[in-house]
Amino acid sequence: QLQLVESGGGLVQPGGSLRLSCAASGFTGDYYAIGWFRQAPGKEREGVSCISSSDGRTYYVDSVKGRFTISRDNAKNTVYLQMNSLKPEDTAVYYCAARAFPWKPNLGWGRHFEYDYWGQGTQVTVSS
Questions:
Q1: pLDDT value of position 48
Q2: Are 121 and 28 in contact (CB under 8 A)?
Q3: C-alpha 20: how far from its chain's center?
Q4: 73/79 Cα distance (integer angstroms)
Q5: For the chain, where are the alpha helices, taking DSSP H only?
Q6: C-alpha 103: how far from chain center
Q7: Which residue of 49, 57, 66, 122 is surrounded by the most CB atoms within 10 Å?
Q8: In terms of Cα–Cα distance, which of 64, 116, 119 is closest to 95?
Q9: Which tens digit of pLDDT belongs to each residue from 68-116?
Q10: Can you tell me the distance from the alpha carbon of 66 to that of 108, in angstroms, rounded to the nearest whole number?
Q11: Exposed/middle/buried for 122, CB within 10 Å: 0-12, 13-18, 19+?
């Protein structure tokens, strides 16, 4: 069983930065990729970014490209999401999640129901 714990959320002004962390424990070898998702009130859960466990390849939703960076520290079993140039529309609860199997090329990485393990979420609020 894999456990995921997010941290690093908070209140930040537009244009500011935050770094989210996702610490994994338990059977950490049993996943294909780690993804970051977010969910704003009244909206569907959205895939933000993903990093492959095997080759470190990264993926982003278009709305965060050039502003967010996903990375990993294998020694610490931790995945990070560096968020720069934050906008009010980035406000949401952010979750990290792990999936055990690769996605189909024509479907992509962002289908949240294909992820097997989830953290509890951390709130990110971007407001002046």
A1: 98
A2: no
A3: 8
A4: 6
A5: none
A6: 16
A7: 49
A8: 119
A9: 999 999 899 999 999 999 999 999 999 999 998 889 888 899 999 999 9
A10: 20
A11: buried
